[in-house]
Amino acid sequence: MPKPLPTTDFYAHHSPFGAFASFTLGRHGFRGGFGSELAGPADQDVYIAVVRPGKGVEALPFFRPSSSPSIAYTGEVAPSDSARSAHWRTFGPEEIVRTLGWATDSWAAGSLTFTLHTPFGPVPDVVEIGDGEMRRHLCPAIFAELTVDNRDGDGEAFGFFGIGAADPLRPLSDAGNGLLGMARGGEYGFAAAPLPGRALRELQTWELETAVALADSDAAPPIERLANRGGLLMTVPAGEIRTCRLALGFFRHGIVTSGIATTYLYSRLFSDLDTALAFAVENIDEYIDTARLCDEELDATGLSDERKFLVAHSTHSYLGSTMLLHDERGALPRSPFATTVHRPIWVVNEGEYRMLNTLDLTVDQAFFELLYHPWTLRNTLDLLIHRYSYTDEVQDATDPARPRFPGGISFTHDMGVANQFAPARFSAYERPDLSGCFSYMTYEQLCNFCLCAALYGLPTVLAEGDVFWLAAHRNTLHACLRSLLHRDGPDALRNGLMSFDSGRCRNGQEITTYDSLDPSLGQARGSAYLAVKTWAAYLALSRCFDTLGEEPSAVEAEERAACAAATIAAQWREVDEFFPALFEKDSPGGAARTLPVVESLVYPYLWGDEDAVSPYGRYGQLISQLRRHMKAALTPGICIDRVSGGLKITSVSENTWLSKLFLIQFVAETILGLKVPPSTDQAHARWLREGEARNHAFTDQVRSTDGADLGSRFYPRGVTSHLWMI
Amino acid sequence: MPKPLPTTDFYAHHSPFGAFASFTLGRHGFRGGFGSELAGPADQDVYIAVVRPGKGVEALPFFRPSSSPSIAYTGEVAPSDSARSAHWRTFGPEEIVRTLGWATDSWAAGSLTFTLHTPFGPVPDVVEIGDGEMRRHLCPAIFAELTVDNRDGDGEAFGFFGIGAADPLRPLSDAGNGLLGMARGGEYGFAAAPLPGRALRELQTWELETAVALADSDAAPPIERLANRGGLLMTVPAGEIRTCRLALGFFRHGIVTSGIATTYLYSRLFSDLDTALAFAVENIDEYIDTARLCDEELDATGLSDERKFLVAHSTHSYLGSTMLLHDERGALPRSPFATTVHRPIWVVNEGEYRMLNTLDLTVDQAFFELLYHPWTLRNTLDLLIHRYSYTDEVQDATDPARPRFPGGISFTHDMGVANQFAPARFSAYERPDLSGCFSYMTYEQLCNFCLCAALYGLPTVLAEGDVFWLAAHRNTLHACLRSLLHRDGPDALRNGLMSFDSGRCRNGQEITTYDSLDPSLGQARGSAYLAVKTWAAYLALSRCFDTLGEEPSAVEAEERAACAAATIAAQWREVDEFFPALFEKDSPGGAARTLPVVESLVYPYLWGDEDAVSPYGRYGQLISQLRRHMKAALTPGICIDRVSGGLKITSVSENTWLSKLFLIQFVAETILGLKVPPSTDQAHARWLREGEARNHAFTDQVRSTDGADLGSRFYPRGVTSHLWMI
Questions:
Q1: Residue A156: other Cβ atoms inside 10 A
Q2: Which residues are CB-contacts of B142 (< 8 A; sequence separation ≥ 6)?
Q3: Are B479 and B493 in contact (CB under 8 A)?
Q4: DSSP character at residue B309
Q5: Does B62 touch chain A (CB under 8 A)?
Q6: Residues of B with CB below 8 A from A331's CB?
Q7: Contact partners, residue B378, CB within 8 Å, separation at least 6
Q8: What is the distance, to the nearest Å, from the Cα of residue B424 to the centroid of all Cα atoms in its chain?
Q9: CA distances (Å), origin B659, targets B536, B663, B699
Q10: What ipTM did this prediction achieve?
Q11: Which among A559, B329, B392, B411 could disulfide-bond with B445, CB atoms 3.0 to 4.6 Å apart, if both were Cys?
């Protein structure tokens, strides 16, 4: 069992796999509930309550008392909120015990326990399995248990689970398929199998609070089909403890995207919401068992409580951003290995921004995907190659004339936004003539592609690799190598690092993924962070070519890596023990100390090139410097925030990114053998549970002093935390 | 051309046929825009502007200055609203000339004119026409013209049309089908064909106000694909006047309803939004011509300006509530006359309540549907017979023991709510154990069915009738007659009117459609209004049986009509010259004077039984009394509101219903030969244009003193006004 959390007042995602949907819940005094394709928590009242007739109702604090919309019909004023809510009391924070497991989220208060189960695990390649197995993995539902302990009660009690939505609900029993529950049209709903003796009954009324307070096992609860509030009422006889298991489902029919016409793949396996709910209820015990096993697995690790929390919380939010689509009109080539008629398109949405498959997230989420479903990473790489690659010219942005030179292949920052696939060869994010946020990330995305391709194709600590795929994309890998070279300036001046910006920038310049930070991390050219990533990208290509038996290219790539390493090493500031964030002279922010400079050590480590990341290996000088850089940076006042004790991405900004910190912690501890103070994890967990970041489930960009949300809310990338468990 | 309106600050629907969608616009200082399946206006900024570089922007007042969401990406504060809006000026009410035609809505201010076109007209039965013709009728789009008159200008000017939505937009040119415009995913968007010389360009940016103010024919407008604001910018050279024609389209893919799985029929004819927009743009001239012809047709009538307005406004709102679906899984029997594979289901949504095919609206909208598409009325009748009829017992609600007797067939109040089809034999609205709002309307709906069946089946002033359909449903008509008889009490006591309530009421009693009014109209048993409707229903059945050659049943029904007429006539209060609203002794509100008591004279009149509604005919006594009742009621302080001069449904309530007033005006003037003061029309138009009712497009329930909205907002039923034109 996960341990009780010290504070309980934060939102978490609760989501099935690939449905871009979440039953978000957890902030005290705030709504939540069923949301599909949203940028934040939904806005439904969620009623989770225990009723003791004559003694009133006690409920979790996830709803707001509200007036009755029946006034619109009758023209009359409804009874006041206070009158109707008089019998409702919400549990205070001190009464609520919350545990967040890897696949459960549970609240206990008084005699009430409510648990949401979001089982997950390895998902086989959906083009290689039958529809029956796929149905189990893709059923767009999560699960809940409502328990009321009336063993000490001297009279009947009731448990209640329900919602108040914007639109009218429908009782599931209307559909006549043996389920009880409430649904909103064909969009979402919750279902349960009947309990013996009619102990579980539907209730639907505008005056839900009154009706629940008046629960009575002899009187039928109201069913008002116009009402937007409803739920399930469970009778619990005196002396008993009783649990009701529920499935909470989501559904979207038909084509859901533009640019590429896609449906949700689950909508090919289930004909509608009711079918999906029926399947979920039928298999509910198995699903809940799976969730418990996930919990146990995380519990059994040696991670600290804070890290367990961070792993669990980030997993919940990653799942909430996933979207498994079907290419409805065959816009893309099919996998040559497909044994089914399905043409899946995998999308991870970028949290509140909802950009599709942002490549600088893909590279960080690759670790998780390789552990659980490497084929989703391949799917994204294939879509990048087929539709979201482009060839540019490059330009010397340090010369006012901006002379142009041959460029090469790169990949777009993302594939569109908010269910809109961008046109081929373009992202939704990148624009010309900028030098900061929204400029091109051509160079970094080229590196990211190389790293993702190597992570997927090569055997790694995480997955077995796919050399067939590497071989099939041999030409693309060669194009990547040429493109990296072209961006390194004219032959004679090449130093292994990026010198030229993409011509797509026109009068702007390239940026890195750290787009919203100060120039110490935002600018691409001269970036120490990107320099080490370049080194890793060359190593990635070298390893791939080696695997493919292409000795000359392998050697060439390794030589470029060595050249890059030497150039980086030459920037070492021995006296101050650090790599400047920017290698350009007199750059603003160039003297900043940044943590991401070590980020890319993770890649060679994962594909087993331990020599490359060892202080005693062939890049020993660079690695030693990076280790010293890191050790010096991990100091209060530099990259440890003096106020909170949490880590700072860069010494010169309070804007820090949690997903990157997790990755950096892994590199520091596991690869560089440094100790990162456990107080950092305590701060990071506190930011998410107690800072304003708690308003947005997993939030990536927070203020390092107090965890205020600065961006990247409701975000999937925190699953870099899974590196802690390998 | 429609005449300029005296006041211009009100919302109107602008909708295609059968798409349950509206581009709602018109309140000054309020948003509007694209809305699908909504209960009220959408919440988008709508930017309609003229730009004179250096002199700023002038715009219609349909947007609110707003801060840039880019802050979520950059973590930085955007420039203040006021800075960005400095160059924007909205036209004041005194500058705006608005005309509302039957199928256009036009605003002219300064050098800017903007017109929305919503062409409508007869729609042939969709199961009898080819997909090509159907596509023309069902294309889910409306049309607009943006004109900028720069003939007096000394420099280039620009026209702009755009929106600010909740989610990111996409430039239509991304799809590469030759159109320019903006869309939100596959859900809605606007499109235009390119103008020569790149005079029409897309613009998309969070800082839309700034970008539009900086319009420049030499500089490409920004395209920021993450942004939620965008539009089309039209260059207008000095000395020219230029117009851009736009199509505004809506689309929903896949199954959109529960209970019965249906899609929008248009989604079988167009593969997606872009296809529908392309078709709309290709045929835009024809569509706009049709809209202009509609306008001319209304203009050419002899109606007063106020009545023309009321007809136009109500037509707009009716269309906005219409929904032509396709029965996706063959849940219902197909029409035996169908020559296509389509299985249409017609739904009119009940305005803000969104109940499906509310039968007491169907009977009032039948007049409009018979004029334009009688097959939709048949479709609704078929669905009523097949799925939404039921057989009850009846009970004597005046006896505390509520003894039960055999009942008969009746029909549900509605077929569900908000895209949720109710289970067979049940409405979403009706519930047991009530005596007011939300109780059963069994008796009235039985009458309504008889009247609708007769209106559809018999030749009328409005349509040619369909005797084959009547013959096919002969058994149902017999069942209706038996059911009416059974509800008239035990044989010996029958007086032609309703005596028994449906057993479905349990401990409640039946109500009428006037559910939200005081008991003078709300209670069914003893209702003078329902009594006259009973008489009309018997006449309807008699006429149908006569047409079918069923002499004995025709005679029996006519006898019951005569019995009802005699019973009603006996209630006449000679001294006070009125029929009490309720025939029961000592009823509260029984002494109210009500207008709807004459409503049902319209039916015999329409199927040509002028004798029945003549003071000199076989019901001469009743008709004379009704005429005197009406004449006396049409007096200030009784059913003419002293404050506003508008009509009151009942003397004892300020809650009055416009759609019913239109029908009653028709009966009073055309059938009873009474004069209704034109000042009533002036008041009615004023309520909708100046009262709070203006916030909700056509609003049916208003306060008679000032037009405050009391219910039935955003409502389709106002098309009873079309009776004025026959």
A1: 18
A2: B14, B15, B16, B23, B116, B117, B118, B247, B248
A3: no
A4: H
A5: no
A6: none
A7: B456, B466, B469
A8: 25
A9: 19, 7, 9
A10: 0.94
A11: B411
Tell me what the mean pLDDT of segment A69-91 comes to: 62
CB A5 within 8 A of CB A99: yes
State residue A22 phi and psi, 5-degree precision: -155, 140
Task: Give, for A347, the enclosing helix (H) or strand (E).
Answer: strand A344-348
Instruction: Enumerate the β-bridge partners of residue B527.
Output: B582
Segment A618-647, tens digit of pLDDT? 999 999 999 999 999 999 999 999 999 999
3-class secondary-structure state, position A100: strand
Q: Give the closest residue to A442 by CA, choosing from A367, A536, A355, A530.
A: A530
Q: Which residue has the tokens 């020569």?
A: B196
A321 within 8 A of A716, measured Cβ to Cβ: yes
Diameter of chain B measured on Cα atoms: 90
At A212-249, the pLDDT tens digits run 999 999 999 999 999 999 999 999 999 999 999 999 99
B498, with CB counted inside 10 A (0-12, 13-18, 19+), is: buried
Q: Looking at chain A from residue 198 to 237, which residues have their Cβ under 8 Å from any Cβ of chain B?
A: 222-226
- B chain contacts of residue A353, beta-carbon cutoff 8 Å: 72-73, 226
Gap between the Cα atoms of B17 and B368, Å rounded:
13
Interatomic CA distance for residues B5 and B713, integer angstroms: 22
CB contact set of B363 (below 8 Å; sequence gap of 6+): B448, B451, B452
Structure tokens at B56: 């700023």
Considering only CB atoms, A261 lies closest to which of B226, B272, B417, namely B272
Whether chain B has a CB inside 8 Å of the CB on A273: the answer is: yes
Contact at CB, A255 and B254, closer than 8 angstroms: yes
Minimum CA–CA partner of B254 in chain A: A254
Residue A94, C-beta contacts closer than 8 angstroms, at least 6 positions apart: none
Per-residue pLDDT at A73 exceeds 90: no
Radius of gyration of chain A (CA): 27
H or E element that contains A690: helix A678-690
Which residue in chain A is spatially nearest to B175 when comparing CA positions? A259
> Tokens in use for B239?
């000395």
Q: What's the full length of chain B, in residues?
A: 726
Taking the CA of residue A184 and the nearest CA in chain B, the distance in Å comes to 8
Query: Which one-letter DSSP state was computed for residue A95?
Result: G
Q: How many CB pairs under 8 A join A and B?
A: 165
For residue A590, the one-letter residue type is G
Q: Residues A252, A188: contact at Cβ < 8 Å?
A: no
Helices (H) and strands (E) in chain A — how many of each? 19, 27
Whether B267 has its CB under 8 Å from any CB of chain A: the answer is: yes
Q: What is the DSSP string of B153-171?
A: -SS-EEEEEEEE-SS--EE
The answer to whether A425 faces chain B, any CB pair under 8 Å, is no
Overall average pLDDT of the A669-674 stretch: 98
Strand partners, B327: B262
pLDDT band at A587 (very low <50, low <70, confident <90, very high): low
